[in-house]
Every structure is written in C-alpha cells, then in structure tokens.
Write a structure and sequence with these properties.
Length: 429
C-alpha cells in the first residue's frame, strides 16, 4: 500500500487586482493564500508519508514572468526532495510552456512532462516512481505548448506499462464543464480506453470524482479559492492505493482564505436594524472559523426591506459599515459585497396576464428572458471593455466585466423585472 497527493490549479501569483483597490490588506492575504496552500500540500505529503505528488497544471497564474511564483514552486519541489518525495507535474493553459518563462534549475526529484505537438510523434516514456526500494507506479502527462489547446490530448497518451499502478496526469475539460473553457476536450470513455488506473485531472476548480474505479477519474479542484464564486473548502486529494491496485480518495482542505456566499432572508424583517443585526451575527460566526473569510451577502425573500433593491447607496453604506464592524471581531472577515435578490409582495403571474401597462412590461421581460440568443447578445455587449465609471459601478456590487455571463444577465433581468413591477404598482396607488 502507498499514498500520493493529487493537486492542481494553484494559480501562484494570482493578482486579485479589484480587491487591492478596496482593501490592500485583504488583497495581500489573498496573494499569500495561494503560496500558503502550496505549503499545506507539501506538509500534507510529508505528514502522510506520500510516495509522490502530482500537480495537474495551472500551477502559476501566467506562463511568462512572475519569477516569485516559479521560485515558490521550485522551493516546494526542493522541500519534497528533502523529504524523499518525487514531484511530477504538467503545465496547463495559464502556465503553458511558452518563451519568456523563468529559466530555472529544478531538483532531481522533479519531473516536468513536456508537450507533444503531433499524432505522428513517438510516445514519450512514463516516469517510474520508486518507494521503499520498489517500483510502485508509472506516471505520464502532457503539458500545453500553447494557451488555447484544442486537441484531445488524452488520445496521445501511451499505454501504461503492465504490473505497476498507472497515473495519467492531464489538464483538460473532461465532458461539459461549467464556467471553464473547453481546453484539451475529452470524454470519460476516452480516458477509460487508455488503460490507466487513475486519472489526475486539472482545469476545473471544483473538486469532483467522475468515476470511482476502473479507472478512478478525479478533479482535485483548486487548493485556494480565487474569487467570490469559488466558495467553501478548497484543497487537494490524498489517494491511497491498496495491494490490489484499488484507489480510494480523500479530500483534504488546504485553503488559507475562504470565500462564502451567505443568503439572508428579509421576510421577517421590518427595520434596517433587523437587517444589520442579522448581517453582523453572520459576520461574527465567520470570524470565529480561524481563517480569513470573505463573504458575499445575498438578501432574499419578500418583505418591507425590498426597497433596498433600488437604493444602491444604502447597500454600499451597509457594506462599508460591515467592513468597519469586522475590525473589532475575533478573526479577519471582509464583506465583499451585498447583493439583493428580494421580491415585492406581488403575484407576477396574475399581473402578467392583465391588459395594462404592468402586464405589457412583464410580457416583454418574459419574452426577453426566454430568448437564449438575445441573452447571449446582451452578455457579449456587457462584457466589452468598460469606462472607468462603469467598471467602478460593477465593482461596487462585487462584479468585474469578466464575470458577465448569460447566467448573470438572466439574474439581472429577473431583478429588473421585479424592480420595474414594484415601481409600476406604486404608480398605480
């Protein structure tokens, strides 16, 4: 029996520029967090007596420059060498093997798999891992030669040697992946056909097991959340291989900073003080978790405080109050934004059928909401480079233009529908 660590998508050197404008202290904590997550992976490998560590791409946030990130990765390799642990890795779309990369010497325990650029090339040899004096595993991987890798790299992997536990190390979109580009696309069947025992995948930032055995296929997810959409625990996988070459997988947390999305129901609230009390109580709970927390609050439900939907200045003032309030709490916690998804006390379905201005408005909104083509056009338009004032307005509600997706446009449209309906009802009164 032996164990190994599967990790990916460290994104060392991620800049967190938008947050740096609002809070240099929090941005600094986030910048450190990617390096701290790498340190946690090294500690876990030592503590668990890992036979080897595999890293499945996007280890640095960019392919060229950023010497600090590459030095940190080499430093981790040296620490693993000192513990007698081999490190095997591939590079993905963010850190592809491009000209301009820092040219560094790597320790002899480190294997960096290069790219293959054509089907006609002779297959490269897998790396053989020794543990306690015995050959125990073969590992093979392919790095990206360019950022936008569209070939099915899985089909270029050689058949693994018999008799050893085999690991395929791949940065790829296996099947449909939400929120990620379809780089090096492949299917589960493609991976099964190659004959490996375990596929260590990278690229998707959410931990998931695509197949538990024959072979085991897993995304480790990223070891540190990078934005408000990457909530909850982040980490790596500790894989235990028994004498029958069967693998069992455990998720282990490594994140130093954690993102949260907290829904707060306004249904029972009649005063702004009720809302402040609820938000402060949530902050206090998060501050006791023992790590830096960043929270996005979402106000939901129906009630008198729905009026906050139309008062962006009140939301910004509330957010800033929470940031000030958190300074006196037991642990570092920062309010990233407050988003409003509340609804007025209206029966929109009934009003949609009415022959009046409100009915016309709701039917137009419904028609737009149901058009995938028009939603996509709006998303493309809104994702264009913004003026400084427009960009600041997005940051005020916790967004940047790169997060403008069709799903986000649908969310905004629904909010606009409720806001418009509420104002038209008030005009009737």
């Amino acid at each position: 029996m032996f164990r190994f660590i599967h990790a990916s998508d460290l994104h060392l050197g991620a800049p967190f520029e938008g947050i740096r404008v609002e809070s240099p202290e929090i941005a600094e904590a986030l910048s450190r967090s990617t390096y701290e997550a790498l340190a946690s992976i090294v500690c876990l490998a030592r503590d668990e007596g890992a036979a080897f560590v595999v890293l499945a791409g996007d280890l640095c946030n960019q392919a060229d420059g950023n010497l600090q990130a590459h030095l940190a990765l080499r430093g981790a390799a040296r620490e693993l060498r000192d513990a007698g642990i081999p490190l095997l890795m591939v590079h993905g779309n963010h850190d592809y093997l491009a000209p301009g990369r820092p040219d560094l010497d790597w320790p002899d325990n480190c294997t960096v798999f290069g790219p293959r650029t054509g089907e006609g090339e002779a297959p490269a040899e897998p790396a053989i891992v020794r543990f306690q004096g015995q050959d125990i595993a073969s590992v093979f991987g392919l790095s990206y030669a360019r950022r936008d890798e569209t070939a099915n790299l899985a089909k270029r992997y050689p058949k693994p040697p018999e008799g050893l536990f085999s690991v395929g190390l791949l940065h790829a979109a296996c099947g449909p992946v939400s929120g990620h580009a379809s780089y090096a696309p492949c299917t589960v069947d493609d991976l099964i056909a190659q004959g490996y025992d375990y596929w260590a995948l990278g690229h998707v930032h959410k931990h998931s097991i695509l197949r538990t055995s024959g072979p085991t296929i897993a995304y480790s997810g990223n070891p540190q959340g990078l934005n408000p959409n990457e909530t909850g625990p982040r980490g790596c996988l500790l894989v235990t291989v028994d004498d029958s070459r069967s693998a069992s997988v455990e998720f282990r947390e490594t994140d130093a900073v954690r993102w949260h999305i907290e829904d707060v129901d306004i249904g029972s609230m009649s005063r702004e003080q009720d809302l402040l009390d609820a938000l402060e109580a949530r902050l206090d709970t998060l501050s006791r978790e023992g790590r830096t927390s960043l929270v996005r609050f979402r106000l939901v439900g129906r009630g008198p405080l729905y009026k906050l939907q139309a008062d962006s200045s009140a939301l910004i003032e509330t957010r800033d109050h929470l940031r000030d309030r958190a300074r006196s709490m037991s642990g570092p916690v920062w309010t990233e934004s407050i988003q409003v998804r509340t609804e007025p006390d209206l029966d929109l379905d009934a009003r949609r059928a009415s022959e009046d201005l409100l009915g016309d408005f709701l039917r137009i909104a419904d028609e737009l909401h149901g058009s995938d083509e028009r939603i996509a056009e709006l998303a493309e338009m809104l994702a264009q480079p913004l003026t400084s004032s427009a960009a600041q307005a997005l940051r005020d509600v916790g967004l940047t233009s790169r997060w403008v997706t069709p799903e986000k446009v649908r969310e905004w449209l629904k909010q606009a529908e409720w806001m418009g309906a509420d104002r038209l009802v008030r005009a009737e009164e």
